Amino acid sequence: MIRLLFWIVAALFPFAVLEAFSSSNVLLEFFSIFFPTPELTFNVPRWGLRRVQSVFEHPILFGVSCGATLALVHLVLGEKQSSTRRWAASALVLLTASLSLSSGPMTALTAQVFLIFWNRALRTNEMRWRLLWALFFAIYVLISLVSNQTVPEFLMTHFSFDQQSAHYRVLIWNFGSESALNHPFFGVGFGRWDRPEWMPGSIDMFWLYHAVLFGLPAGILLLLSFLLTVISVSFRKGLDPKIVQYRTAFLIVMTSYFLVGWTVHFWNATYVLFLFLLGSGAWLVDVEPMPKTLIARARMRGSAGPSSKKRLRRQPSANVCNAEEAWDGPVEPDQPPLHGGTGGRRSPSGGRRDRRTER
């Protein structure tokens, strides 16, 4: 599944580059000949480039959908590949999603890159994620003390391409949350939600959208379904190191969705992809835990680099005292101890038997 998603992003990449530099959406123009397609949106160029829409309804959706595969490609698909191919594939996904030139998807990409490097740099520290939570808490307290804005308002206004759109999202939160509280049980449906006359009706905030339209129970249940899945997976203990790496990729992707969901809304294909990826990670809750001895052995093998593993193979096993370290399989009762790495048996007198004479 991840391989398929990667090849879809790779196929969209050349067309995205063409659209960014020429402002020509070749894919939409081609598919519109045969099928109903989304309308080509007008957007103001940024950095001299057109914000890539590709086959989606909006550039933001293009960035969110393509960027959601970054951690999966790097940690899961690239697990058994060489470093060159692994980083090349990750760079391709990163560059493709960045062509949306939208602050929401760029925030999600930045979060994924940071978490990937954090996990890599502190991979030998089992407390790395608790340290990260402590760091985030310290930053939250610092912003609360030194800024006259709330923390969400500070982040939206200081980490955005367009200050006007950032200010608009602050207004969405203020008036949207007030509208949800005014209509707590069933929302406003498809009627007009409570806002000033001059304010557009778009709610660019996924986690608030359902509470405004369908009531607080709908918004709370959607958020709970997300959080319960993520929390259940994150607190699963005793997993194989390979499964732990898959879980890390899944949680990084869900973190990016959680962050970007406060600045954009998911709909159509992007909404379906989000729910699909959320459900596809639920299997991690049912994985059987490994025995602690096997986990410790797997961690020792995983912490040893390729060069150290080669040195271990070349060392003679003359001083091996523990048979479990030298041989993982069953040992025959009449088999003499292993005293050399050459693979032959010794005669009772201590000399090595020649296999050719036995024939």
Protein topology:
Layout: H1 2-22, H2 26-31, H3 59-67, H4 70-77, H5 83-98, H6 103-121, H7 128-146, H8 151-158, H9 163-182, H10 206-214, H11 216-234, H12 241-260, H13 269-280, H14 292-303, H15 306-314, H16 323-326, H17 355-358
Structure write-up:
- This protein is mostly helical and 359 residues long.
- Helix content is 60%, strand content 0%.
- The chain is built from 17 helices and no strands.
- It has helices at 2-22, 26-31, 59-67, 70-77, 83-98, 103-121, 128-146, 151-158, 163-182, 206-214, 216-234, 241-260, 269-280, 292-303, 306-314, 323-326, 355-358.
- Helix 4 (70-77) runs antiparallel to helix 5 (83-98).
- The two termini are 53 Å apart.
Task: Describe the structure using short key phrases.
359 residues, disordered C terminus, mainly alpha
Mean pLDDT: 81
Shape estimate = globular
Helix tally equals 17
Question: How would you spell out the order of helices and strands?
Answer: HHHHHHHHHHHHHHHHH
CA radius of gyration is 27 Å
Number of beta-strand segments: 0
- Our measurement of the CA-to-CA distance between the termini, rounded to an integer number of angstroms, reads 53 Å
Percent helix = 55-70%
**Which ranges are low-confidence, i.e. pLDDT below 50, for 5 or more consecutive residues?**
304-359
